[in-house]
Amino acid sequence: PALATVNQHRSLFPFNDTFMSQITKLSDDCGYTSFLDDALTFPPRSQFPSVPYNASCNIWDIINNASLALNPCFNRYHIPDSCPTPWNPVGGPIVGLGPTNYFNRSDVQKAINAYPTDYFVCKDGIFPTANGLDTSPPSSLGPLPRVIEQTNNTIIAHGLMDFELLAQGTLISIQNM
Fold it and tell me: Is the pLDDT of residue 129 over 90?
């Protein structure tokens, strides 16, 4: 859904027509365009389509790299950001590398009843597997449908300014539950 996100937020991805034509053709050739059309049809026409995969079709990386070339302060977690990078008390000027101070303060840890520890975004080794990676099934393929079924009181919210977790990808996951 990377190209769909770019098309939805054209003013935040100021790519020229040549680049847009290239990534649109790549999306078409790789089967992503037709996959999105099928996967985002409500109600679904049939069983969820197979996800096309080809290592040379990594449109997300191409768009992310192009965005960083145009805007060195591009923030994939909040796409409206531009230079200068806004200050964030949780992670300083670069949230992806933080938190640099806030959650490591003893008064904050005490206030949120957290054990004294060294907090860091995307810290290695938090999952109890040999390689430290999360091997849990995707939430939409097990835990989330069970929660919805058992509670009948579930709200799924998603930010639209995120290029890491794409809103249309979340819609596809919900559609596939």
Answer: no
One DSSP character per residue, 94-128 reads: -GGG--SSGGGSHHHHHHTTPPS----TT-TT-SS
- Assess contact for 15 and 66: CB atoms under 8 A: yes
Contacts 24+ apart (CB under 8 A), 80-85: 80/12, 80/161
Tell me if 133 sits within 8 A of 125, measured CB to CB: no
3-class DSSP state of 73: coil
Using an 8 Å Cβ cutoff, are 89 and 102 in contact? yes
92 DSSP β-pair partners: 88
171 close to 13: Cβ distance less than 8 angstroms: no
Q: Which two tokens stand for residue 6?
A: 């770019």
**For residue 169, which of 137, 140, 129 has the smallest C-alpha distance?**
140
Q: What is the pLDDT of residues 33-71, one digit of tens each?
A: 999 988 888 888 777 777 888 889 999 999 999 999 999
The pLDDT of residue 94 is 54
